[in-house]
Amino acid sequence: MPSSHPQPVTISFRFEEKQLTVSVTDSNPAFTIESPVPDIENYPEGGYGLLLIRSLMDTVSCRRENNTNTITMSKQPEIL
After folding, report:
1. Tens digit of each residue's pLDDT, the chain (80 residues)
2. Rounded to two decimals, what is the model's pTM?
3. In whole angstroms, what is the distance from residue 65 CA to residue 61 CA?
4. CA dist list (Å): 62 to 11, 20, 26, 30, 34
5. C-alpha dist (Å) from residue 28 to 46, 52, 63, 68, 70
6. Are 41 and 56 spatial neighbours (Cβ–Cβ below 8 Å)?
7. Which of 80, 78, 75 is nearest to 15 (CA)?
8. How far apart are CA 35 and CA 31, in angstroms?
9. How far apart (Å, rounded) are the C-alpha atoms in residues 70 and 62?
10. How many helices (H) and strands (E) does the chain have?
11. Number of Cβ atoms within 10 Å of the Cβ of 72
């Protein structure tokens, strides 16, 4: 259930060796990135963000520590 009070979100970006890494940290309830792919035909209310992240990023990891979630995503540029 969504909180009625806004929760802080921290976003960090790191560029290393031709790789972009983005980390997003919040104190919302725990979740897992292994959630099932949403059924787009039936328009569910959740799961689209993770679907996009997993589709666009090279690596995605999630951890829960000290009542906070951190999802870390990395992408290397595509060479044409």
Report:
1. 455 677 789 999 999 888 999 999 998 887 766 666 666 676 566 667 887 888 899 999 999 999 999 999 999 987 64
2. 0.69
3. 13
4. 14, 17, 12, 10, 10
5. 14, 20, 12, 7, 10
6. no
7. 75
8. 8
9. 6
10. 1, 4
11. 17
Region of 10 (left: φ > 0; alpha: ψ -120 to 50; beta: rest) is beta
20, two tokens: 């972009």
Token look-up 């979630």 returns: 69
DSSP 8-state code for residue 64: E
The answer to whether 60 touches 72, Cβ cutoff 8 Å, is yes
Alpha helices per DSSP H over 9-63: 48-56
Q: Which amino acid is at 18?
A: K
Radius of gyration of the chain (CA): 14
- Rounded to the nearest 10°, the torsion over CA 78, 23, 39, 2 is -160
